């Protein structure tokens, strides 16, 4: 009798465990680490996160395989072991692509079954050999109807492959995520919604880069949560994904740990949507949060938080910087939690200032 009871309890526990795993993640409090930032992996305070993305692995346009450059191999291969020293329960994902990757290479890879298979098989092999718990696609962005359709094929086949690999090896299934445009459509193109829902554990919604000095000649909130009278906001983007059919608990809201600096035409006209003459401070105007705080301190800049759009900015002389500070981050994380989103992610940890934004986000979400 005792043996039967023990067997029943074991079966029940195993069933509940499998049910938990099949229903996906409970929460994602994540951030990307960028190899290009040169921020030491060992310095990451991984206790502040549930997931970390290691960015970026490359797509070899000749072989259609995922690869890590020789300069990054040591850091990537030790990434999971390193961040788990401070947080043994954290899960890591290898992110592939990125904003500076060659979009045409992804389009070509996704266009044929054989090249998709090369990509998929190599990604799984690399993730396993480096000890990652999942894979993250950052293809920015499919730009034709055909490419969107091929993205759907890629995701469908990728999901089948990670399922098969898990079954055959006995390993826990690799997680699958993707960083996608802020809206469920990429301007006039529709994402393959049903495939995305069926294939991915979650979507990282890139709710930032709305305004920047390289593509807008006025100041603007780079990552506004709201933007009355426009469709350029994080809230609008999240609503498009939900209306398209993606459950809110598969959406992860993107937070920028950086901002953009413009040069004002008139130092006395320093609000949102003031005329500008291009980037300030850096060639592209982009600055990490730590750099922005240094600018504020060194120039006694005036700081402003606009609760209507949920965005911060500062100005000194003709230099104007739009960014997210603790007020914006706190409001956005509260929004994500209150609206049933799976969580949030940040780009990127190396841009934070002594973990100020990371701590504000983690504390706001709570345990």
Account of the 3D structure:
- By secondary structure, the protein is an alpha/beta fold.
- The chain has a single domain (27-256, 325-365), classed as Glycosidases (TIM Barrel, Alpha-Beta Barrel).
- It contains 11 helices and 17 strands.
- It has helices spanning 2-22, 73-77, 79-83, 103-109, 113-130, 145-169, 193-199, 234-244, 289-299, 326-338, 356-365, and strands spanning 28-34, 51-59, 66-67, 91-97, 134-138, 175-180, 185-186, 189-190, 202-205, 251-256, 258-264, 276-279, 286-288, 302-306, 311-316, 319-323, 343-347.
- The strands form 3 sheets. Strands 1-2-4-5-6-9-10-17 form an 8-stranded parallel β-barrel, surrounded by 6 helices. Strands 11, 12, 13, 14, 15 and 16 form a 6-stranded antiparallel sheet that branches. Strands 7-8 form a two-stranded antiparallel sheet.
- A hairpin with a 2-residue loop joins strand 15 (311-316) and strand 16 (319-323).
- Residues 1-23 have low confidence and may be disordered.
Summarize the structure.
The chain has helices at residues 2-22, 73-77, 79-83, 103-109, 113-130, 145-169, 193-199, 234-244, 289-299, 326-338, 356-365; strands at residues 28-34, 51-59, 66-67, 91-97, 134-138, 175-180, 185-186, 189-190, 202-205, 251-256, 258-264, 276-279, 286-288, 302-306, 311-316, 319-323, 343-347. It has 367 residues and is α/β, with parallel strands linked by helices.
Descriptive tags:
eight-stranded parallel beta barrel, 367 residues, 11 helices, alpha/beta, TIM Barrel, glycosidase, 17 strands, six-stranded antiparallel sheet, disordered N terminus
């Amino acid at each position: 009798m005792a043996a039967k009871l023990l067997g029943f309890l074991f079966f029940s526990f195993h069933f509940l465990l499998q049910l938990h795993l099949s229903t996906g993640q409970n929460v994602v409090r994540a951030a990307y680490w960028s190899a290009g930032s040169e921020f030491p992996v060992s310095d990451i305070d991984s206790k502040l996160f549930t997931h970390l993305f290691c960015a970026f692995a490359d797509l070899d346009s000749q072989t259609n395989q995922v690869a890590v450059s020789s300069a990054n191999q040591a850091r990537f291969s030790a990434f999971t072991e390193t961040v788990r020293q401070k947080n043994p329960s954290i899960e890591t994902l290898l992110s592939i692509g990125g904003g500076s990757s060659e979009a045409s290479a992804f389009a070509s890879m996704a266009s044929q079954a054989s090249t998709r298979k090369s990509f998929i098989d190599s990604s799984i092999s690399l993730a396993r050999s480096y000890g990652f718990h999942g894979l993250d696609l950052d293809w920015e962005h499919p730009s034709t109807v055909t490419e969107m359709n091929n993205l759907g094929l890629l995701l469908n086949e990728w999901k089948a492959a990670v399922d098969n690999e898990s079954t055959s090896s006995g390993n826990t299934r690799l997680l699958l995520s993707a960083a996608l445009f802020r809206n469920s459509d990429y301007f006039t193109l529709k994402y393959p919604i049903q495939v995305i829902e069926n294939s991915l554990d979650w979507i990282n919604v890139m709710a930032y880069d709305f305004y920047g000095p390289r593509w807008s000649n006025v100041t603007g909130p780079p990552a506004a949560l709201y933007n009355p009278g426009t469709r350029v906001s994080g809230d609008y983007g999240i609503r498009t994904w939900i209306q398209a059919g993606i459950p809110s608990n598969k959406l992860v809201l993107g937070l920028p740990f950086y901002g953009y600096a413009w040069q004002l035409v008139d130092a006395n006209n320093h609000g949102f949507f003031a005329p500008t003459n291009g980037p300030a401070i850096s060639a592209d105007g982009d600055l990490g949060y730590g750099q922005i705080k240094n600018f504020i301190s060194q120039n006694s800049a005036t700081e402003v938080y606009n609760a209507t759009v949920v965005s911060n900015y500062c100005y000194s002389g003709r230099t104007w910087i739009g960014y997210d500070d603790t007020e914006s981050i706190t409001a956005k994380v509260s929004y994500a939690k209150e609206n049933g989103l799976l969580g949030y992610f940040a780009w990127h940890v190396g841009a934070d200032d002594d973990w100020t934004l990371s701590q504000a986000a983690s504390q706001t979400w709570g345990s």
